[in-house]
Write a structure and sequence with these properties.
389 residues, Aspartate Aminotransferase, domain 1, 14 strands, Aspartate Aminotransferase, domain 2, 13 helices, 7-stranded mixed sheet, 42% helix, alpha/beta, 2 domains, binds pyridoxal-5'-phosphate
């Protein structure tokens, strides 16, 4: 029986372009051979361009959480004072990893659903003993909030001791404005299954000069995630351990597509689609979690209406082929989350909002799905970047 067509709208993994799926379904190659070297170098160089760095982008096999671990263990030593600015569950995860490896982690916790305030961070940094590093989240997938990253990084660099800036860029990179070198970010990590249009399996780590200098004296234990080792192998066009070759074949397609589209156009497309999703959900009378200025271009979170139970509502959407994410941790059963990153277009988001509206109606809510879709189209068309040429 053919599988029902799904509209996969979780915040990663994302639906893959057909070309990427086909690229993944090819015979294996020698991961110590020339062809692999070209594959690795091309993706790495493409990603460097897309995130705005002249530094090195390393590709390792693992998930985003592995890349977070790599950021910590390659730059820090046990006992280092670390400030973890957390605005949701992924910020908490970054903090937990640093604690697990012996950093002395202090959490600066922002209420979920809000972004961090650069002035508050600046003040905290100025009135506390120097930290070795500050952990920041670019885009908090658990709440659909984007941090004012550039301003936060500036606050950190102005602080006593000029702490290292380690950024979880997993669900924002590629889709939202991000300039690693111009913003002076020491290290940022991401993962293939997000805006890059790859399958899950490749962890991405970009390091600037200060991160490499820190690496020389960092004493946290590391083996699989030893990036100095990965750097040596990358020079030969290889990875230290056997890589997820098929995932890399698909990822190359995603990176090429983003380069062809152009960074600004990709960012504008994501912003326009996100604005349309926000309008559509609000037209369905759903209240968005994030305040207008903090809303993410890749993930939208909305509160479940009072009295609507998540499990049956979610099951009903899934029965129609619409797959969205629920809340995490304390927000399980309280919010729903839509992913709109990567190769996403407005049509599949309009389908998703329509299906959600119809399911809400079946669950006793007064909604007008066609009106929500019209609202989306209007917002999207008003924001469309001018056609090129
Ligand atoms: C912001 C953020 N950080 C970390 C992670 C963890 O990545 P992974 O699930 O690939 O380990 C995710 C995954 O959704 C994420 O969105």
């Amino acid at each position: 029986m053919p599988a029902m067509e799904q509209n996969l709208r979780v915040p990663g993994p994302t639906p893959l372009p057909r070309e990427a799926l086909e690229a993944q379904s090819v015979p294996m190659i020698d991961h110590r051979g020339t062809e692999f070297g070209e594959l690795l170098r091309e993706i790495s160089a493409g990603l460097a361009e897309l995130i705005g760095t002249r530094g090195e982008v390393l590709l390792l096999t693992g998930s985003g959480s592995g890349a977070l671990e790599a950021a910590v263990v390659n730059t820090l030593s046990p006992g280092d004072r670390v400030l973890a600015v957390t605005i949701g569950s992924f910020g908490d995860r970054f903090a937990k990893i640093a604690s697990a490896f012996g950093a002395e982690v202090e959490r600066f916790e922002i209420p979920w659903g809000e972004a961090a305030d650069p002035q508050a961070i600046a003040q905290h940094l100025a009135t506390n003993p120097a930290y070795r590093a500050v952990l920041l989240t670019h885009n908090e997938t658990s709440t659909g909030v984007t941090n004012p990253l550039r301003e936060l990084v500036e606050a950190v660099h102005n602080a006593p001791g000029d702490p290292l800036v380690l950024v979880d860029g997993i669900s924002g990179l590629g889709a939202m404005p991000f300039e690693m070198d111009a913003w002076a970010i020491d290290m940022v990590v991401s993962a293939s299954q997000k805006a890059w249009m790859g399958s899950p399996g490749i962890a991405i780590a970009a390091l600037g000069e200060r991160a490499w200098t820190a690496n020389e004296s960092a004493r946290m234990p590391r083996a699989y995630w030893d990036l100095a080792e990965a750097r040596k192998w990358a020079e030969k066009g290889q990875t230290p351990w056997t890589p997820a070759v098929s995932v890399l074949f698909g990822l190359r397609v995603g990176v090429r597509r983003l380069l062809d589209e152009g960074r600004e156009q990709t960012w504008a497309r994501h912003a326009a689609i996100a604005a349309a999703v926000h309008a559509g959900l609000e037209a369905l009378d759903l209240r968005l979690v994030a305040a207008p200025g903090d809303r993410s271009s890749t993930v939208t979170a909305a509160w479940l209406p009072d009295g609507l139970e998540w499990a049956p509502f979610n099951a009903a959407m899934r029965a129609k082929g619409l797959i969205v994410a629920g809340g995490q941790g304390a927000w399980a059963g309280r919010i729903l989350r839509f992913g709109h990153m990567g190769g996403v277009g407005i049509d599949e988001m309009m389908d998703a909002v329509r299906t959600m509206g119809e399911t809400l109606a079946e669950h006793g809510r007064q909604t007008d799905p066609p009106a929500a879709v019209r609202a989306m189209r209007e917002v999207f068309e008003a924001r469309q970047p001018a056609p090129v040429g």
